[in-house]
């Protein structure tokens, strides 16, 4: 496994695919996903041994 905090365009597509698999974000466009990740303070991805994204989380905060 590899932990990443910067995402290639292919990995962004994989993040988008993960979002499409849950009810609360399945209507989100790829552009919305990219904006969501770029607007977050911290994003972390987990890649398997084949560099396929298997986990993703993001942190947003007002720092208070």
Characteristic terms for this protein:
3 strands, 33% helix, alpha+beta, three-stranded antiparallel sheet, 2 helices
What is the fold's blueprint, element by element?
Layout: E1 2-4, H1 9-20, H2 30-38, E2 42-47, E3 53-59
Antiparallel strand pairs: 1-2, 2-3
Question: Can you characterise this structure?
Answer:
There is one protein chain. By secondary structure, the protein is of the alpha+beta class. It is 33% helix and 25% strand. The chain has 2 helices and 3 strands. A 3-stranded antiparallel beta sheet has the order 1-2-3, with helices on one face. The chain is globular. The mean pLDDT is 92.
- The overall average pLDDT, rounded, is 92
According to DSSP, the number of beta strands is 3
Which parts are unreliable, with pLDDT below 50 for 5 consecutive residues or more? Answer: none
What's the SSE pattern? EHHEE
Which structural class matches the secondary elements?
alpha+beta
User: How many structural domains in the coordinates?
Assistant: 1
Name the strands of the widest sheet in spatial order. 1-2-3
Distance from N terminus to C terminus (CA atoms, Å) equals 33 Å
Strand fraction band?
A: 25-35%
The 3D shape can be described as: globular
């Amino acid at each position: 496994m590899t932990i990443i905090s910067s995402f290639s365009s292919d990995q962004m597509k994989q993040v988008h695919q993960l979002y499409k698999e849950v009810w609360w974000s399945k209507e989100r466009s790829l552009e919305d996903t990219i904006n969501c990740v770029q607007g977050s303070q911290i994003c972390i991805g987990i890649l398997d041994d084949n560099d396929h994204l298997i986990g993703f989380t993001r942190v947003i905060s007002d720092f208070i």
